Design the sequence.
């Protein structure tokens, strides 16, 4: 049976310290971390799970890779650099967790491959899922 720790206090504290400088951060937002074996799941959300007001980022760290599962900024706050700031916070955490690279599958109507390429991601060669990666 795998060990599961819900809301690992040390990791949640690290996330909260990093997020306090994020302009859209509010103390009522949800910060979660779960460990299952060697995998670590991290998320930050304003608990509004529908557009246009959703603020969310979720990542999973496994085998020295940080997989970006989702990132969303409220529609009325887009184009102001908040997505980049939020991504940068989680990239720093991935490096602190000894990740060697980050990986994502661009999707959605706002964040496309150009957004990721601008942040140093490149397409993974011969990948039918159109995944992108960035070495850290």
Sequence:
């Amino acid at each position: 049976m795998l060990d599961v720790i819900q809301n690992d206090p040390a990791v949640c504290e690290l996330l909260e310290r990093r997020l306090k400088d994020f302009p859209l951060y509010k103390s009522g937002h949800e910060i979660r971390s779960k460990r299952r074996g060697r995998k670590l799941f991290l998320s930050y959300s304003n608990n509004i799970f529908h557009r246009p007001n959703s603020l969310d980022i979720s990542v999973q760290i496994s085998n020295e890779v940080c997989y970006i599962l989702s990132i969303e900024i409220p529609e009325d706050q887009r184009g102001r650099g908040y997505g980049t700031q939020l991504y940068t916070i989680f990239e720093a955490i991935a490096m602190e967790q000894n990740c060697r690279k980050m990986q994502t599958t661009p999707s959605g109507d706002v964040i496309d491959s150009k957004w990721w390429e601008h942040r140093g991601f490149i397409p993974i060669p011969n990948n039918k899922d159109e995944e992108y990666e960035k070495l850290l």
Observations:
- Strands lie at 4-6, 30-36, 39-45, 56-62, 65-72, 101-104, 122-123, 132-135.
- The domain at 4-135 is CATH 3.40.630.30 (Aminopeptidase).
- Residues 82-96 form the longest helix (15 residues).
